[in-house]
Amino acid sequence: MSVRQTEGRGLFESILDTVGDTPTVRINRIAPKDVTIYVKFEAFNPAGSVKDRLALNIIEGAERRGELKPGQTVVEATSGNTGIGLAMVCAAKGYPLVVTMADSFSIERRRLMRFLGAKVVLTPRTAKGFGMYQKAKELAEANGWFLASQFETADNAEIHENTTAREIISDFNGKKLDYFVTGYGTGGTVSGVGRVLRKERPETKIILTEPANAALVASGYINTRNDSHQPTEGHPEFQPHPIQGWTPDFIPWVLQEAMDGNYYDELLPVAGADGIEWSRRLAAEEGIFTGISGGSTFAVSMKVAESAPDGSVILCMLPDTGERYLSTPLFEGIAEDMTDEEVALSQSTPSHQL
To answer: At residue 129, does pLDDT exceed 90?
Structure first.
């Protein structure tokens, strides 16, 4: 029997003090018999995703360096999770926020950001991630706004080195950890965690994954960048994919560290349909509600488990909650009204039938 902890985490002075320290949860019903799989469930961050970490560190890092002035507007290009995290941080600290986002991303993401007080400027989906990135740069330059620069800033991998990785090291202190599996959006997770695992847990194999139809890293081609490490072109191998938050149409500078430093041992592609399937199974069979990106990482973890030696331990990153995918293919076929089976259940007793 599980026993609920009653001591709590204490009193917090701000919602921002609750970022990080997310749980590592064992998979019980759908994991292979001879392999143990854990998930690092980042939906427990206050705004629901791993990007809360980098959003907080970007803003506080800029404050420390004097790059962000009181009341100055923050602007960033994002597929949603970073924007939601920034909206939370900016709301708590009193900064206006403008987000640029391609109109292909889920409607609930833009509504969540607006609910948190941000303005959302949509860009054409045909311009892809590079288009929304260019728009954010233009707005920053034209208005003197602070560009958050999640794809280039050192604050990104730093927060994962100092928090995400330290949590993993603590959780697996004295225990086996054979594989760590993650995808990439900016590359902050794999670069920051990779720094620590390579030094302190060199036996742990790091598995990086990307969409099968947008295999940018696997292509061997690195898009051009300017002197500020900002992309100057979209990647020619990019194709639209359903794994929102993963793999923009360029290889971010933050990810380049992991590529150059050999921070991963294997690169495995994953089909978006597999991510959807495993996200649904995690919800229905484990009670773990994550999005397509989490399902995709888990799909790769299950693939790794197929060839892993018996007794292996795998840790899988789950970046966010499934609630920001309600208008995406993840929820296709999920009925709003009662199904025939539900109607039959209702009619099986006499009261309160619709």
So the answer is: no
